[in-house]
Write a structure and sequence with these properties.
Length: 885
């Protein structure tokens, strides 16, 4: 007979109900206070009924500063403005902070256990429950280390209290989430209960989240797929027990349910792993978004006792049937395949919020932008976020490269003197192991995972690699594991990464990408770009003071607080600003500077993605590129494709043109035109027209090419060496490439402004972050361009599907009534009352350049605001409202 335990129903002050075994709830809110403000024994503060009327109240997990923002101690608008963040020193972040919550539990008679689950606390914590310390910071250590503690013996009938003492984080000493040169560091270093803390009620036998693997290896969807579901079971009781594990797999359309079960004998106080198989006869395959649909199966699983009583229920878990492989090609570059097809990675580096505040709606907008740009992957450099991120990526068909971070404790192995972290000691290996176990368990079933990088700038030493690999194996990790994001070295258990980390991170000219060394388009670039991502003026004014704005354009070498921290090479926009002045002429106003910056940003991102696309199946293929970076942790002046307020600008639309699924691109170096196809199936005849005009509108060249397109391939279709002679010093030309298939709407329309002579790169004097230019391209003639007359109109589109989902679509037609080109037309959509730009905003194209007499039709979709006004700015001219039709 199992002995009788006190067991519980959680009636709860907060929203929770833990009535049946298997029920699990997250602590919904916390009282937060500094240890400075609290006197007396901490254990006593973890007794019920302590007086916390002087404590802050937060409604979700948060870092200390995140919590203080929620409690209105700080104001985000204020904190993000100018250098205000640098003045934050109070309250004291050098002392531990307390997170406390009470809940009520009622007893009932059965053999049940109350478990506490953590998912990482920054960076370490003591945990008290009802006056007893149940965990110490020697164990609960590391921002990603999750543990389960048995609270059962300490449960009180009625009110219970949980208290977590979170110790201040040091990026040098602790396994945390650091920022290096991304942005200023948060004053609290991200300390606190940043992830959920859960209470779980279980019977004598608990079961873990299921881990799911399949034997699917290719895109042969016709044959059956064997699904293996594994779960860890643990007997908390003092008697052995025969437990039945029962599960069901629901098909994505809920048409079918596959049931399976297994009886397991489990001795007292032991654990075991159970593995169950089910065969899916007509599997529905999960695809990355550009290639197909995202059918998701789900698995439910529970364990029951001989009496029939359920002892635990696993969280319902989604999975997708798909297969990811990575391999080194003959050039030792890594190449991925998904479902048997070469997967050309077009990615960008993701940044969480500077205070680690997680907002699923904001994340959905960010991921929608990723897909809208035409990218297929995000890289999380040591910022693994919350499990909801992976659910969202699964549903949206976005691939995720996860991994550990560089440049602090995470890479401070004995061999690595480049890391500023304190060298790993014995205990650190245990934290790293626990972190890997936890993150692998969280990510395991998600079809969106492309790879886990166990190192970033450097590779783990042998002992760390052993532990990482054993953790991944014990979590049935089904995806590639890669030694690092660079080629500096690798541990003996893993092959070379095949990923290059050779820069650039700061400005380089567009023809850089068509070179043949460093970050140019060959192999796999794990983090690289021209550093661009200048917000438009509407956003800049939200976070820069008048003085900052003045500095931005008039002091090209000055530091900016909204860049990397001081003393780093990315604290100024010096390299970019020098190139801007040399290529486009020095800006004489803020408006002119921002306009020219957008032009530079657009050129930079378009060329990077185009070059990697054009060479996707070259002799040495460009197998993938991760733009550094996608977004920023706070309002920033660099390394982003859209700004913190979710406004897209030049960098966004350059990337969006460059990453088009079917596209036609110009190689600045070889002066040739490439046809690009990222689709899985599109074939057939394609028509390409090529026109070059002078800035006065005179036609200089016209070509038409008819060719066949092939999936997942690119090819050169035309050489136009005569461009070199058609453009003379000080003149510029406009090159328009149009790609069409059978339908009248072109598949791609792409306009370049070309100098007589390209920028000249000094490759031999490259730094890790840039390659210098000895002679700059001369675009100063653009400033002499006469303003073209552009007639625009905007009409609301009645789109039933869009309206039902709360979307507003507007069609904008632009017609150039002049005989000269209309350069770089920026469209925006604003709220008519506040004149604020609406975001997020999905333009099919923007910053377009029209040829003489040319007419284009653009569509914009917004999610919020049914009232709108479209505004237009031609070149560096004045913004004007577009008349609604
Ligand atoms: C809690 O403390 C506050 C002041 O610190 C006091 O005003 C309040 O009466 C106390 N509440 C209880 C229930 O003791
Ligand atoms: C935050 O500060 C801004 C300006 O400094 C102000 O407009 C806004 O109302 C403040 N918000 C809150 C919630 O106090
Ligand atoms: C379950 O499926 C896996 C993968 O196909 C296979 O290796 C294993 O032998 C199967 N086990 C059983 C019991 O059928
Ligand atoms: C996977 O397992 C199923 C069922 O056992 C089998 O029919 C199928 O051929 C296997 N597929 C592969 C690729 O081994
Ligand atoms: C699990 O799958 C079934 C069948 O498709 C569906 O009805 C149910 O909503 C799914 N549950 C979740 C939480 O997605
Ligand atoms: C499972 O049992 C083994 C010893 O048999 C122990 O080392 C391990 O920590 C247990 N696992 C868990 C999750 O309790
Ligand atoms: C996947 O399917 C395509 C055709 O749809 C075929 O060309 C390709 O060879 C298949 N790949 C594998 C690995 O089966
Ligand atoms: C890339 O693929 C295209 C289309 O199949 C082909 O014409 C071209 O020769 C390939 N490039 C190389 C370098 O093999
Ligand atoms: C227009 O520019 C071209 C190329 O610079 C030049 O040859 C031509 O004379 C110009 N035409 C006029 C009317 O200025």
């Amino acid at each position: 007979m199992p002995s009788l335990h006190l067991a519980l129903i959680l009636l709860s002050a907060t929203v929770m109900a833990l009535q049946n075994p298997g029920a699990q709830v997250s602590i919904a809110g916390w009282h937060l206070q500094s240890t400075h403000a609290v006197t007396g024994d901490l254990a006593a503060w973890s007794l019920p009924h302590a007086n916390v009327s002087k404590w802050y109240r937060i409604s979700r997990p948060a870092t200390v500063l995140g919590g203080l923002l929620e409690s209105n101690v700080y104001n985000e608008t204020y904190l993000f403005y100018s250098d205000h963040l640098s003045g934050v020193s109070k309250p004291d972040f050098s002392v531990p902070w307390l997170y406390r919550e009470e809940f009520s539990l009622s007893p009932f008679l059965a053999e049940q256990y109350l478990l506490l689950k953590t998912h990482g606390i920054s960076s370490k914590a003591d945990i008290f429950f009802n006056g007893i310390q149940i965990a110490s910071s020697d164990i609960q250590k590391g921002s990603y280390a999750g543990y389960t503690y048995d609270l059962t013996r300490h449960v009180l009938v009625g009110q219970n209290a949980l208290l977590i003492k979170a110790y201040p984080t040091s990026y040098r000493d602790d396994f945390a989430l650091g920022w290096v040169d991304w942005n200023p560091h948060p004053p609290d270093s991200g300390t606190g209960v940043w992830r959920n803390v859960e209470l779980k009620l279980t019977g004598p036998v608990s079961i873990s989240s299921p881990r799911i693997t399949t034997n699917f290896t290719s895109n042969q969807s016709a044959s059956p797929v064997e699904v293996t579901v594994k779960t860890d079971i643990q007997n908390y009781g003092d008697s052995s027990v025969d437990v039945t594990i029962r599960g069901s797999i629901h098909s994505p359309d809920s048409a079918k349910t596959l049931d399976f079960s297994q009886l397991v004998h489990l001795p007292a106080r032991t654990n075991s792993t159970v593995s169950l198989n089910a065969t899916i006869k007509d599997p529905q395959i999960w695809w990355p978004a550009t290639w197909g649909a995202q059918p998701l199966y789900n698995v439910s699983l529970n364990a029951s006792l001989p009496s029939g009583a359920v002892t635990d229920v696993a969280p319902l878990t989604n999975f997708g049937i798909r297969h990811v492989v990575s391999a080194l090609n003959s050039h030792n570059d890594v190449a991925f395949t998904v479902n048997g097809h070469p997967f050309h990675v077009r990615g960008a580096g993701y940044a969480p919020d500077i205070f680690l505040r997680f907002d699923i709606k904001r994340l959905e907008n960010i991921f929608q932008y990723v897909l809208d740009i035409g990218l297929n992957t995000v890289r999380l450099e040591g910022k693994q976020e919350h499990s909801e991120l992976y659910d969202l990526a699964d549903r949206m068909g976005l691939m995720v490269i996860a991994g550990w971070e560089c440049c602090d404790k995470w890479e401070a192995w004995a061999y690595n003197d480049d890391s500023p972290g304190t060298k790993w000691q014995n205990q650190d290996y245990a934290i790293a192991h626990a972190s890997m176990l936890h993150e692998a368990e969280m990510m395991q079933p998600h079809p969106s995972l492309l790879a886990f990088l166990v190192g970033s700038d450097y590779w783990p030493d042998e002992r760390a690699t052993d532990l990482y690999l054993s953790a991944l194996r014990s979590m049935d990790w089904p995806n590639p594991v890669i030694a690092s994001a660079s080629m500096r070295g690798h541990p003996s258990q893993l092959p070379p990464s095949g990923m290059k980390m050779d820069g650039p991170y700061d400005w380089v000219p567009p023809n850089y990408w068509y070179g043949d060394s460093l970050g140019a388009a060959f192999g796999f670039g794990s983090e690289q770009g021209a550093g661009v991502g200048t917000p438009e003026l509407s956003s800049l004014k939200k976070f820069l003071s008048d003085a900052d704005l003045k500095t931005l354009w008039s002091s090209p070498n000055a530091g900016q607080y909204h860049l990397a921290p001081e003393n780093g090479v990315f604290h100024t926009r010096k390299i970019f600003n020098n190139a801007l002045a040399k290529r486009y002429g020095p800006a004489k106003t803020l408006e002119e500077y921002v306009f020219k910056a957008q032009v530079m940003d657009y050129e930079a991102t378009r060329a990077e993605f185009e070059a990697f696309a054009a060479r996707q199946n070259a002799t040495r293929p460009a197998t993938g590129v991760v733009y550094w970076m996608l977004n920023s942790a706070w309002p920033s002046l660099h390394w982003q494709l859209f700004d913190y307020y979710l406004q897209p600008a030049g960098a966004f639309f350059g990337a969006k043109v460059g990453a088009r699924k079917e596209h036609v691109a110009f190689d600045y170096e070889s002066r040739s035109v490439y046809l690009i196809n990222h689709s899985l199936k599109s074939t057939g005849t394609r028509y390409i027209t090529v026109d070059l005009i002078a800035s006065n509108g005179t036609q200089l060249l016209h070509h038409e090419v008819t060719t066949e397109t092939a999936p997942l391939a690119s090819k050169e279709v035309l050489q136009i060496p005569e461009i070199a002679t058609l453009l003379t010093a000080k003149t510029i030309g406009f090159l328009r490439l149009i790609l069409s298939g059978t339908s009248p709407e072109p598949l791609s329309r792409n306009v370049y402004w070309l100098p007589a002579q390209n920028d000249v790169l000094d490759w031999d004097n490259s730094e890790w972050y840039t390659t210098p230019v000895t002679t700059f391209a001369d675009f100063t003639a653009l400033s002499a361009l006469k303003p073209a007359t552009v007639v625009a109109s905007a009409t609301a589109l009645v789109d039933d599907a869009a309206q039902e989902s709360g979307l507003t679509s507007v069609e904008v037609t632009l017609e150039n009534h002049s005989d000269i080109p209309a350069f770089f037309i920026r469209l925006a959509i604003v709220d008519p009352k506040t004149r604020e730009e609406i975001a997020p905003v999905f333009w099919d194209d923007n910053y377009v350049t029209l040829f003489p007499r040319e007419k284009v039709r653009l569509v914009v979709v917004v999610r919020e605001g049914s009232q709108w006004v479209v505004t237009m700015r031609v070149g560096g001219g004045k913004e004007q409202d577009v008349k609604p039709k």
